[in-house]
Amino acid sequence: MQSLSKMSFWSVGAPTLVAAIALWLQSVGHGAPADDRGADNPPGQTTDQAGQPTPVLSKRYFGTRACQRCHAESSDRELEPISICRCNELITWQQHDKHKDAYQALLGDRAQRMGKLLNIETSVSEQRECLTCHSAFLSEQSSADDSFHLEEGISCAICHGPYEQWVVAHAPPFARQRDAWRRLPGKEKQSQFGMTDLRDPTTRAALCASCHIGNHAEGKVITHEMYAAGHPPLPGIEVTTFSDQMPRHWQYAKEKSRAVQEILKVTPSRFEETQIVLVGGVVAFRETMRLLAKEAAADDKQWPQLAQFDCYACHHELETPGWRQHRGSTGRPGQPQSRSWPTVLMRLALHQLRQDDQTLNTRLKSLNDAFDVRPFGKREQISAAAEQLVAWADLQLGALADATVDDAAARELLRFLGAMGQQAGTDYDSARQIGWALQTLCREWSGVSKAHWQSVRAEVDSLNLGLSSRLRRSTLVPLSEGTQKRNDFDPNLFRDDLRRLVQLLDSSPPAPNAP
């Protein structure tokens, strides 16, 4: 534990360490509900639902230098005692992770042109609207450690939590304290110390969605004006695929050693990533609805806020005949609707929960009706309908925790994805959601013999949607390029691909250990 001790004292400071250990000794032994990760804690003592005092967390951003003593080690080094992570996470982040370049994007030519078009007098790299997703905006309730630099982009503290208590407490100098820390549940580490519980798929997906979809409460909102000035449209997100594209600097529970699994008290499922696809799909739907509800209800925002609508409903080539004329409409023809891709994996999750596919259509009716009242909808009704969908999605997340995925369930999910892809008029972004989910399920499923595995995988790879799980370039593309990709997309060819895949799955003999 020598390196842990050095990091604690030299990177953070002995006085802070003593204070954190004292806080740690007070907090171990009782839990508390997770706090609102998007809000600064008010001054003064707070209490949990049982009336017990909870610590007041100090919002403080630490930079990667505070982490490098322990998390920039060689991956082949034997760690003693056993480490619950690989301790080379910072190396992966520094060498490969696209998030480290987020702030640098604010200094480029595109960002400077955007600043001029948006009449920003200072640099866009100083704007709250930009920093909230490209690095961190330091509010009056937060501070920065000497090790923190905005230039590092989306660095450790941004995702793991900008609170000094956990930075010290997770690496104490004494074995007894270290073992006690490891035994704490993730939710308690979050509520008592401010360390975001990223092992919880719902928490992780919500964190990703806060930037990749948007979060009104945290000021992470892209407007149509930003798009018009040159900000690339946000693509649909699927958490497992995007995590691989980073690439991941962490391990799933199933990838960890048995000893670490015992320390963490987890029994991982072979379908861990599939379960994250399902949870992430519901979270993406929920956060899309939450953002829509808050933006429609905001008194300081004009309506319509066009960024909340399907961009490519307007930005597309005018061709006839074309597949758009044959796909039908969820609302009144000619009136823009919200984007449809967040509903795809929501439907997949509902199928796992054994709910009829019409369930979501029924739930969406109030929202569609609110959009149809007049062009761009009636904002008060849109907000109310979207808020109801947020609450309903939360209930589905609770149900998913008890819905185990096995080989039989995975086969059903694959078939359902294939059926969705065969529906007339599937758009490009919805097709990518289907394709990304298929990739994950095919990786984890053992329902076909090895002789047929390559054929199944070849069909998935033939979808030709740029679905590689390790894209070499950013997922963000300019509007013109995105429009061209969607114009070139042929849903009829995609439907044929999915039909062949389903036929192959149905005709493939099961593996010997498959049900």
Structural class: mainly alpha
Based on CA atoms alone, the radius of gyration comes out at 24 Å
The helical percent reads 40-55%
Low-confidence stretches: 1-45, 467-473
Enumerate how many helices there are, as a single number: 24
- Secondary-structure element order, N to C: HHEEEHHHHEHHHHHHHHHHHHHHHHHH
The coarse silhouette is globular
What fraction of the residues are assigned to beta strands by DSSP? under 5%
Arrangement of strands in the largest sheet: 1-2
Number of strands: 4
* pLDDT averaged residue by residue: 82
Largest sheet: 2 strands, antiparallel
Q: How far apart are the termini?
A: 46 Å
Give a quick rundown of the structure.
With 515 residues, the protein is mostly helical. It has helices at 2-12, 14-27, 68-71, 89-96, 109-117, 128-134, 156-160, 164-169, 175-183, 186-193, 201-212, 224-229, 239-245, 258-264, 272-297, 311-314, 342-352, 358-372, 379-400, 407-421, 428-444, 450-461, 479-488, 491-507; strands spanning 46-47, 53-54, 60-61, 143-144.
What are its keywords?
single chain, 515 residues, mainly alpha, two-stranded antiparallel ribbon, two-stranded parallel ribbon, globular
Task: Give an account of the 3D structure.
By secondary structure, the protein is mostly helical. Among the domains are: 1-28 and 61-100 and 144-196, no CATH class; 272-507, no CATH class. It is built from 24 helices and four strands.
